[in-house]
């Protein structure tokens, strides 16, 4: 006996399921999926940081490769990365290399603030980072950073500190990983205070090279008072050719197209006192 196969009519429900969902439903689903992705990424980055800290726990932190510590902490940041650089070349290279890597996942939205002393700029790594990563805000503290050690502040939750200079054969000085909320908060407040008084990298005068600050001020004053090059060169006790080369260097560093503009720019940057 041949069995009968019953072909059912498509139900109204199945017919409706083939229709294109409304844009509101798509937006809701997309929003839910993005939120789930962010939650997963956040959980993964925290897990990575915890695994790294667990692996460092049995070792003196100073013996862990600096690049490994910096890479791990920067890569696990979710909201903010605040950096203090005071001149240690190894630290500067490690931090700039970690920040220069393409951001992935949640790191794309991380706010990066880098605070450094003027000598740090000599290496060129910080300026190179500024050119390639516009999300990284950099400021320079001309007066030094006496109260702040070299540090890496991540999300207001963990701070990697380095105290003391590196010594050949003796490691990078004292290092520590701080997670105590009160200590981290205090360091963040110190950072914020110093940051507020620092100068943006773009506004920082780059008058280095052969000229000392006193010579720069004397030349700028000559430009402002309208001294001829011959008179100014005699006052500076240099040849006319050398004086003009110094003037060209100062104008280039100040981004000025004329001597008058150089004088205005010098006052704006605090290299010369303003005249009322």
TrEMBL record:
Keywords: DNA-binding, Transcription, Transcription regulation. Residues 8-22 have a biased composition (Low complexity). The keyword Transcription applies. It comes from the Bacteria. One of its GO terms (molecular function) is DNA binding. Residues 217-266 form the HTH luxR-type domain. Residues 1-22 are annotated as: Disordered. One of its GO terms (biological process) is regulation of DNA-templated transcription. This is HTH luxR-type domain-containing protein. It comes from Streptomyces antioxidans.
């Amino acid at each position: 006996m041949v069995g009968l196969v019953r072909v059912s009519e498509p139900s109204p429900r199945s017919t409706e399921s083939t229709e294109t969902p409304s844009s509101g439903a798509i937006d809701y689903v997309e929003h839910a999926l993005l939120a789930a992705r962010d939650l997963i990424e956040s959980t993964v980055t925290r897990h990575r940081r915890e695994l790294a800290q667990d692996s460092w726990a049995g070792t003196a932190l100073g013996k862990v490769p600096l690049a490994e510590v910096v890479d791990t902490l920067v890569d696990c940041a979710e909201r903010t990365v605040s950096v203090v650089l005071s001149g240690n070349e190894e630290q500067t290279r490690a931090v700039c290399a970690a920040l220069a890597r393409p951001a992935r996942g949640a790191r794309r939205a991380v706010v990066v603030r880098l605070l450094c002393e003027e000598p740090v700029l000599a290496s060129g790594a910080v300026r190179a980072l500024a050119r390639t990563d516009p999300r990284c805000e950099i400021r320079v503290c001309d007066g030094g950073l006496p109260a702040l050690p070299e540090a890496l502040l991540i999300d207001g939750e963990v701070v990697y500190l380095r105290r003391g200079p590196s010594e050949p054969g003796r490691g990078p000085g004292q290092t520590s990983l701080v997670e105590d909320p009160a200590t981290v908060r205090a360091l963040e407040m110190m950072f914020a205070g110093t940051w507020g008084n620092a100068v943006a990298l773009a506004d920082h005068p780059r008058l280095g090279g052969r000229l000392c600050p006193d010579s720069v001020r004397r030349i700028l004053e000559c430009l402002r008072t309208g001294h001829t090059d011959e008179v100014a060169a005699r006052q500076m006790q240099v040849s006319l050719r050398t004086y003009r080369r110094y003037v060209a260097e100062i104008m280039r560093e100040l981004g000025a197209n004329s001597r008058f503009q150089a004088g205005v720019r010098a006052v704006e940057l605090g290299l010369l006192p303003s005249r009322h």
